[in-house]
Amino acid sequence: MLKTPISADSHITEPPNCYVDYIDPKWRERAPRIQEVEGFGATFVIEGLQDKIPMALIAAAGKDPKELRMSGASFDDLWRSGWDPKFRLADQDKDGVGAEIIYPSVGMMLCNHPDYDFKKACFDAYNRWLQEYCGENPKRLVGMAQTTMRNPAEGVEELKTIKEMGFKGVMMTGIPQGPDYDDPVWDPVWRAAVELELPLSFHILTSKTDSVGSIQSGTRGPKINTFMSIIRGNQDIIGMLIFSGVFDRHPDLKVVCVEADAGWVPHYMYRMDHAYKRHRYWMKAPPLDRMPSDYFRDNIYTTFQDDYIAFQTVDMVNVNRLMWASDFPHSDSTWPWSQDVLAEQTKNLTEHQRNRICHDNVAELYQLELDTPAARMAAE
Asked: What is the CATH number of the domain that holds 261?
């Protein structure tokens, strides 16, 4: 029997009061806020970030491709379920989705803010708001808290607080303050994540190398070529963690590569192994206990939405680490056609493979207590 899909990567649409009302009062005057900007419509304006964040594409799920625009939407035009949880379950049902792992939208851009103190204040505010949003139905709305990583000691305490708030996972900032994540100084954070059973997620567009601004300014050719650059930031993070021996020191650490697709994974694993076997001496790679692809296969989860190739290459990767997602309500979302997309793209899979990718893997990773008809009947 095919199980009801769970989206491993969906989003909220931060409302005007998300940061203003929930931030530490001393930061309130600087809090990110929505303004109607001429030529852009409803736009989040964030002090210290050059790029403004128009909300139109953030909530463009279900629109005809010819109607997609970066600007021009008012906040009232956006899908209400993006910020009002009372409407969210109906949109899940419309798409045939039983639950969603929920990430931020504006918060993705905040990951690249240069002021880590300001960033922490914003993330703390977001976590408080998200806790309330998901409180409407914690079994179907599973939020990923954001964390700043200003230093390892504080990072450990942040993970403990996030666990106490009831979150089942953590969205990491792409680049920490101080040494990068390959430095052993971050080992206490990895150890805490394992002990607290908190999977750590790295989402696209949260590193300086794959931020909207850096991609648009650094990619050659037509603007659409920037779309091809989005996954590179996450690939850099995965390679850094594997080649630096993080998973040798922390074999139970679970890392989620979010919204970077998965069709590229077989070749990436092969090329990592080739690099290690052929070039590790002159390139001064530290010795590893296993081949790089082994760590990818065991420790890295990948989420993807419309990725036909990912479904065709399941026998070349670990099927227990692939997780389908709808990306609602973003412009790249499969909502409200997810069932049609899955029917077409998974038709060559076994029932077991489809259930692993579309349901079981995410349910097990986040230890979900699902609110399904079967679960309700069992409870009765």
From this structure: 3.20.20.140
